[in-house]
UniProtKB/TrEMBL annotation, chain A:
Keywords: Membrane, Transmembrane, Transmembrane helix. This is ABC transporter permease. It comes from Streptomyces sedi. Signal peptide: none annotated. The chain crosses the membrane at residues 48-66, 112-129, 155-178, 190-212, 224-246, 266-287, 324-343, 368-390, 419-440, 460-479, 491-509, 529-549.
From TrEMBL, chain B:
This is ABC transporter ATP-binding protein. The keyword Metal-binding does not apply. The keyword Magnesium does not apply. Keywords: Antibiotic resistance, ATP-binding, Nucleotide-binding, Transport. Residues 305-347 are annotated as: Disordered. GO terms for biological process: response to antibiotic.
Length: 557, 347
């Protein structure tokens, strides 16, 4: 928001029509960036502070909980050993953190960095896409760019705002952690921890900038950004359990391998900065290769008429949602394959710590690893069902539901088609994850029986996914403006999966996550009752949602 | 019951959005087989009315009958018999126009493929383009083709040609003419006066959530002042004494004779006859009368800011608030006293 950047726009607004290029102000491709930045900050005056506040506070709360739960070095040594397993490492970070006493600082970086950088990346992706591709898709960009605005100003503003938010978050994290006075959480380490979060955010800001150029759809751009984020997480999980080279392919891995509070090495952050710079340059370059509102490829003509099934509610929901759901399924399959492929490494590692394994609860340690992987992968199923159902709200407010519901299509059939597709599609995402994990795991350890077993086990999470769909639909039916709040379910559920145990979250709070109620097959025995209850609740909530939709006014543009 | 002959019957309809009273006791009757113009300024409640008729919004109070049924409770069954074109057509970015047409038409209960092809040709629309690549006018065409390709009893058209070029506007007018010949009923919300004047049998003017005038164009015109411009052989006098005559101006007419006089005045519809008879006594050499255009009728109801700044070529100056026909035309269906007026005009 430098004065130089804002000068051209402000000058142009006051300048008479005869002087289109104000003297002294640059009229280049970045003209007006400052104005756009201020505009974006104004639009995000609630959103960004909530993101920053939430991430900072939950980080601080987690560290506080570590301090109270594991006050003695002996407590921490115990918990360190429980994480010295493939499942533990896949969920947290590299094993290196466990050596050297597992101070509260090391614990913080090990347990929190991976999960929270995922959230930072998500914030960056959503913010960039919101201020770039969403604006183009809605047509608002056309109006804005007709003003005195350089070709790159909008993208530059989106990147500056997202990048700025990441830097501010880094400063907040560093300051908060350093000021907590927790033993082992050093000021230098806190600075590195904050910096690593910030530079990782910058890297994903750049990546999101590229994603926003590739596809003409904002949902596609967000999906692409999230896919990169998921891949980064999967690579680091694989690298931390198996060959560490994989971790070095992942920006999240780079952040973790800065080893704040342990080695305090800053150079891995240069990788983030390099990626951020390269991606930013690529994004600007790509934006010059396309027209406003278009993707990189020109739109091709399609079918001049509709296939017969398009006019069926399920068919329509399938046609509109298949891209997103297939994306989730492909991502889950890939993530599953990656985790499954290190199963033999996991087995090997477990032999090395045989005594440890013996202490574990009866179950085979590979089974525990598989269960943990399935729980993480279930997050993709939860996200898929929420994404598919929140589309209904977008269709409604976007004016596309109006002509449909002015035909003989009833509201029940319209939403029913979408519900069926959302639940079915998300179940398919779970199955894809199970198949990927099972197939790669079976190949890795040479046990073909693992494939059907893991694939079947993945379906145990289906009722939790359906329940999430039910909550989303109930929100949509009764509190349509709050439909997006359903995203809190996958967010919260993943928070509980990754941190619930280690921050000693009260049982009641853990049980708010639908995933908590799913039996950890194959590690533990199958239990039908919680799944039946979840299915029952899912049915009731869905019914309630349809009832709400049937009785309310449609939200029309 | 009237329901057999009326496609739409709305009485005392109220719809509020929070503190905003979007519809405030709206009455509207559309007879079966007519093309009914639905006029009003932006935000007057036209779209809200149509959305209530579609069962997309629920009426707070009042009665609404659509094709003899309840638009909220029997939405699906009624929707089979109607077709709707929204004012802002939003298409699915990744469906082609052709797919959208088929989707909407099939969901309504099928379409005639020959008619679809003919409409695509007449509107010069390429159905293989993706939704996001269409211009506003072309999106509008997609919705029009989908609506007109079905032979629905009732067409609800909410400013359907806002993005069309004049050629396509002409095509649209032809098609509405055909629809009328086929016995389809049309409710046409519009801002294009020429379109309404050409197409509509009757119009209703809505303002701030209620209908302020309803009737045929002739009826509406008749109840508004006509401006008259005449040249007479002898100086015209005494016109201003007549009831319903306003703004009389008498000036010497140049080059037509020593006593020739040019006289202009405006007169309320029911009093036109008497004024013209009085004029005849002065030896009329030329006579020009302008019935009010629909635009003038509209401006009359378009809020106070429009009053007083109207300057049309026909030298009418109706800044003074008389001749207001609200009272005569409210609740337009039982037009007993209006019939008197019509007879007077007809002679």
């Amino acid at each position: 928001m430098s004065g130089a950047a804002t000068a051209p726009a402000a000058g142009a607004a006051e300048a008479p029509a005869t002087a289109p290029a104000p003297a002294g102000g640059p009229a280049g491709p970045f003209a007006g960036t400052g104005t756009m930045v201020r505009f974006a900050l104004r639009r995000d005056r609630v959103r960004l502070p909530v993101w920053l506040g939430l991430l900072t506070l939950t980080t601080a709360a987690s560290v506080g909980s570590f301090q109270s739960t594991y006050p003695e070095p002996a407590d921490r040594a115990t918990v360190a050993e429980t994480f010295r397993s493939p499942a533990g490492l896949a969920m947290s970070g590299p094993e290196r953190y466990l050596d050297g006493g597992y101070s509260l600082g090391a614990m913080t970086a090990h347990q929190l960095l991976g999960f929270f950088t995922l959230a930072v990346g998500l914030m960056a992706v959503l913010t960039v896409v919101r201020h770039s591709r969403v604006e183009e898709e809605s047509g608002r960009a056309e109006l804005v760019r007709s003003g005195v605005l350089g070709r790159h100003a909008q993208l530059a503003a989106a990147l500056l705002v997202a990048g700025g938010a990441c830097l501010l978050l880094g400063a907040l994290l560093a300051g908060t952690l350093a000021s907590m006075g927790v033993e082992g959480v050093t000021a230098g380490g806190a600075a590195l921890y904050g910096a690593a979060s910030a530079t990782l955010g910058l890297a994903f800001t750049g990546a999101a900038g590229v994603a926003a150029q590739v596809t003409p759809f904002s949902r596609g751009a967000t999906g692409l950004g999230c896919a990169v984020l998921g891949a980064a997480y999967a690579l680091r999980a694989v690298g931390d359990v198996g060959p560490s080279a994989f971790s070095w392919l992942s920006p999240i891995g780079w952040a973790q391998r800065a080893y704040p509070f342990l080695d305090d090495r800053w150079w891995p952050l240069l990788l983030h900065l390099g990626l951020a710079a390269a991606a930013t340059v690529a994004a600007f370059w790509l934006s010059t290769r396309r027209d406003l509102g278009a993707g990189l490829r020109p739109a091709r003509p399609g079918r001049p008429g509709a296939v017969a099934w398009l006019a069926m509610p399920f068919g329509l929901a399938f046609r509109l949602g298949r891209g997103l759901t297939l994306g989730f399924a492909a991502g889950a399959l890939l993530f599953g394959v990656m985790l499954g492929s290190v199963l033999s490494d996991a087995e090997q590692m477990l032999e090395e710590v045989e005594e440890m394994a013996a202490q574990l609860v009866g179950a085979s340690t590979t089974d525990i690893f598989i269960s943990v992987c399935l729980t993480i992968l279930a997050g993709a199923g939860l996200a898929a069902v929420v994404a598919a159902l929140t589309r209904a709200r977008a269709e409604e407010t976007g004016g596309r539901a109006e002509p449909l519901l002015a035909t003989a299509l009833s509201r029940t059939a319209w939403i029913g088609g979408q519900l069926a597709f959302a639940l079915g599609g998300a179940t398919l995402v779970l199955l894809a994850a199970g198949l990927g994990l099972g197939a790669a795991g079976a190949a890795s350890v040479g046990d073909a029986a693992l494939l059907p077993e893991v694939a079947l086990a993945s379906l145990a999470y289906a009722p939790a996914v359906w329940f999430t769909g039910g909550v989303t639909l109930a929100l949509y039916g009764w509190f349509p403006r709050a439909t997006a709040a359903a995203w809190a379910i996958p967010g919260y559920a993943m928070g509980v999966v990754f941190l619930g145990e280690v921050v000693n979250l009260p049982r009641a709070l853990r049980e708010l996550s639908p995933l908590t109620h799913v039996p950890s097959v194959p590690a533990e025995g199958f239990e039908a009752v919680p799944l039946l209850v979840l299915t029952f609740l899912a049915t009731g909530l869905s019914w309630l949602g349809v009832l709400g939709l049937r009785r309310r006014d449609l939200g029309l543009p | 019951m009237k329901s057999s002959s009326n496609a739409i019957e709305i009485a005392d309809l109220v719809k509020t959005f929070g503190p905003t009273r979007a519809l405030d006791g709206l009455d509207l009757t559309v007879r079966a087989g007519e093309v009914h113009g639905f006029l009003g300024p932006n935000g007057a409640g036209k779209s809200t009315t149509i959305r209530v008729l579609l069962g997309l919004l629920r009426a707070d109070s009042g009665t609404v009958r659509l094709l003899g049924g309840d638009p909220w409770g029997e939405a699906v069954a009624l929707h089979r018999r109607l077709a709707y074109v929204p004012g802002d057509v939003e298409l699915w970015p990744n469906l082609t126009g052709g797919e959208a047409i088929d989707l909407l038409a099939r969901l309504r209960g099928g379409l005639d493929p020959k008619r679809r092809a003919r409409l695509l040709e007449r509107f010069e629309l390429d159905p293989s383009k993706k939704g996001r690549t269409y211009s506003k006018g072309n999106r509008q065409k997609v919705a029009l083709v989908a609506a007109l390709a079905s032979r629905a009893e009732l067409l609800l058209l909410d400013e359907p040609t806002a993005g069309l070029d004049p050629l396509m506007e002409a095509v649209f007018q032809e098609l509405i003419g055909e629809a009328k010949e086929n016995g389809q009923t049309v409710l046409l919300s519009s801002h294009i006066m020429a379109q309404v004047e050409k197409l509509c049998d009757r119009v209703s003017i809505v303002r701030q959530g209620s209908v302020v005038q309803s009737g045929s164009l002739d009826e509406l015109r008749h109840l508004t002042r006509t401006s008259v411009e005449a040249t007479t052989g002898r100086p015209a006098s005494g016109l201003e004494e007549l009831p319903g005559v306003h703004d009389v101006r008498v000036t010497p007419a140049e080059g037509t004779g020593p006593d020739a006089t040019r006289v202009t005045f405006s007169v309320d519809g029911p009093h036109l006859e008497r004024a013209v008879s009085r004029l005849a006594g002065f030896g009329v050499r030329s006579l020009l009368s302008h019935p009010p255009t629909l635009e003038e009728l509209m401006l009359r109801h378009y809020g106070d800011r429009h009053h007083g700044d109207r300057h049309h070529g026909d030298s009418r100056h109706d800044d003074s608030p008389h001749g207001d026909p609200h009272g005569d035309l409210r609740g337009g269906e039982n037009g007993d006293h209006r019939d008197d007026a019509s007879r007077a005009a007809g002679r």
